[in-house]
């Protein structure tokens, strides 16, 4: 059993993580093995995403008054993934979830100061990274110019 001082310290850690992050994801990690968790934590750390495991009661206490709406139901073993980037934490949890089927489940989260459900977090997770979006934009801008160059080249060949 945890001492009261240890519980208060854990609540303060959760409150700090919640306050400093722009998005937060509630994760059910039932069945996650130690070596998989090590891989998960390393991948999250590389992307600037924090990951904390705690008791549901302590997490719930830390969440009171931190966002608008109602806290999603936190079932099973719960952890939080948080980051200063709005999309990084849901995207990285989703990517790990794709490669390790049935281990992690997104339960919901906090986005733009509001509690949101699983569906909204999944939508955020599926948004491509900034680099991917920029490369798609560059390709879209390059494509018409490339077609025009090919057309002009064909006209020049005929003359």
How would you explain this protein's 3D organization?
The protein is α+β, with helices and mostly antiparallel strands and 159 residues long. Helix content is 55%, strand content 18%. A 5-stranded antiparallel beta sheet has the order 2-3-1-4-5, with helices on both faces. Strand 4 (105-111) and strand 5 form a beta hairpin.
What is the CATH T-level topology of the largest domain?
Answer: Alpha-Beta Plaits
CATH architecture of the largest domain: 2-Layer Sandwich
Question: Could you say which structural class the secondary elements and strand pairing correspond to?
Answer: alpha+beta
| Helical content band | 40-55%
The helix tally amounts to: 6
**Rg from alpha-carbon coordinates:** 22 Å
What proportion strand? 15-25%
User: How many beta strands in the DSSP annotation?
Assistant: 5
Q: Can you list the strand order of the major beta sheet?
A: 2-3-1-4-5
Mean pLDDT: 87
Unreliable stretches covering 5 or more consecutive residues? none
Based on Cα principal axes, name the global outline: elongated
Cα-to-Cα separation, first versus last residue: 88 Å
- Helix and strand pattern: HEHEHEHEEHH
CATH H-level superfamily title of the largest domain: Ribosomal protein L10, N-terminal RNA-binding domain
Number of domains: 2
Main sheet overview: 5 strands, antiparallel
CATH class category of the largest domain: Alpha Beta
